[in-house]
Amino acid sequence: MLVEILTAISLVLVLEGLLPFLNPNGYKNTIRLMLEMPESRMRIVGLCSMIAGVVLLTLVR
């Protein structure tokens, strides 16, 4: 189980690093837009992202 958790964390780090590596200016602009976004909207985006991840994980498994 530890191997699977470390694999998942490793994949998250790789995916998180793709956008700043491929398009640093676009990444900076996205972060600026996120800083201006209200916290309530950020929470909704985070919730939707988690739900999409759980659904995808359920479909894959």
TrEMBL record:
UniProt feature coiled coil, ranges: none
Annotated Pfam families: DUF2065
TM segment ranges: 6-23, 44-60
Domain of life where this protein originates: Bacteria
Keywords recorded for this protein, A-Z: Membrane, Transmembrane, Transmembrane helix
Protein name: Inner membrane protein YjeT
Originating species: Granulosicoccus antarcticus IMCC3135
Lineage: Bacteria, Pseudomonadati, Pseudomonadota, Gammaproteobacteria, Chromatiales
